UniProtKB/TrEMBL annotation:
<protein>
    <recommendedName>
        <fullName>Sesquiterpene cyclase</fullName>
    </recommendedName>
</protein>
<dbReference type="Pfam" id="PF19086">
    <property type="entry name" value="Terpene_syn_C_2"/>
</dbReference>
<dbReference type="InterPro" id="IPR008949">
    <property type="entry name" value="Isoprenoid_synthase_dom_sf"/>
</dbReference>
<dbReference type="InterPro" id="IPR048138">
    <property type="entry name" value="Amorph_synthase"/>
</dbReference>
Length: 338
């Protein structure tokens, strides 16, 4: 991976060494290594209408702030850009899941900020639904139960089980995040990235890309060390790229679990310099992904190649969505140089 600079002077020199750009978004565009082409799904508008209807059906958009948050977040747009080749039915599940996770994440953030213990009823309900098929007791739980039903209807039992397992990891990650937020001075960079890998909520989507293939992947292919490493790299690259664009918003809100903000704490540098450091780590991650994929691609089945396309979709799709979504509009108003 790329060697990271460690002093404020070196970081600032690296930022100024390139042609000047006006704002943080342009700084990211200039320095981020993004080798994969832009794509979008032609069923995006259908998925957007479906998300609105699905959230309304379970009463989530009647809760304060949810409708406005969804308008700023555009879940169907993220689904379209991360999943450009899936059929309309699977795209709808992806879009519904993205919308659900944003609602769930914002609720957890609000409760966890007051006390990690306040999260327990919400998280325990989710685990019971995902692990045991327990009946829900809240509107959010009912939406999760319906999402789980949609996944089971589309996926094989093994794929649905992997989806539920990865979704439980995401739920647990939100509790770790709340604990870390309550003890901010004890949070180290490695712990931040470990928690971020869970709260990213990217890997729960990968079993859906298994389901998009014409046949199931062989176990030896799906669970090979290289494919598992590629899964980790793609999820990290995707969510860390979103962290670049959300850093200003999250800094203002006092959030801690963000790659750029972790570098800012570790190096006691400006937000702009921290973003530049984070870009270096992301570039190294994407470069490693490219190298490993080129090595293993000749050995993959057609289904394996299709599955890997889903991982690539998240790397590129998160970038395209993050740079234009209203939720992260602050990146265009922060100057590129501190």
């Amino acid at each position: 991976m790329t060697t990271l600079t460690t002093t404020h002077e070196e970081i600032a020199l690296g930022v100024r060494g390139a042609a000047p750009v006006p704002n943080l978004r342009d700084l990211i565009d200039t320095h981020l290594h993004m080798p994969f082409p832009f794509q979008w799904n032609p069923h995006e508008s259908e998925a957007a209408a479906g998300v609105e209807a699905w959230l309304s059906r379970w009463g989530l958009t009647r809760e304060p702030g949810v409708a406005a948050m969804i308008a700023r977040t555009r879940p169907a747009e993220l689904a379209s850009r991360t999943s450009p080749t899936v059929d309309s039915g699977l795209l709808q599940i992806v879009a519904n899941q993205i919308a659900y996770q944003f609602v769930f994440d914002d609720r957890a953030e609000d409760l966890g900020r007051r006390s990690p213990g306040r999260l327990l009823p919400m998280l325990c309900e989710s685990i019971a639904i995902l692990r045991d098929g327990s009946p829900p007791s809240t509107a959010l739980g009912a939406a999760l139960a319906d999402l789980h039903r949609q996944v089971r209807a589309r996926c094989t039992p093994a794929q649905a089980a992997r989806w539920a397992w990865k979704s439980r990891e995401y739920v647990h990650g939100l509790l770790y995040e709340a604990v870390a937020q309550a003890q901010p001075f004890l949070l180290r960079t490695g712990e931040c990235t470990s928690i971020r890998s869970l709260t990213a909520g990217v890997e729960p989507f990968y079993p859906l890309y298994e389901a998009a293939q014409p046949c199931e992947l062989a176990a030896a292919e799906l669970h090979s060390p290289v494919v598992r490493r590629l899964s980790r790299l793609s999820a990290d690259a995707a969510v860390w790229t979103a962290d670049l664009f959300s850093a200003a918003k999250e800094q203002r809100a006092g959030e801690m679990i963000n790659l750029a903000l972790a570098y800012q704490r570790a190096h006691r540098c400006s937000l702009q310099d921290a973003v530049f450091l984070a870009i270096q780590q992301i570039n190294g991650t994407i470069t490693e992904f490219q190298r490993l994929y080129l090595e293993i691609e000749p050995e993959l089945s057609p289904a394996g190649v299709g599955y890997m396309a889903g991982m690539i979709g998240w790397i590129r799709g998160c970038y395209d969505w993050s740079r234009t979504v209203p939720r992260y509009a602050d990146a265009a108003s922060v100057p590129a140089v501190p």
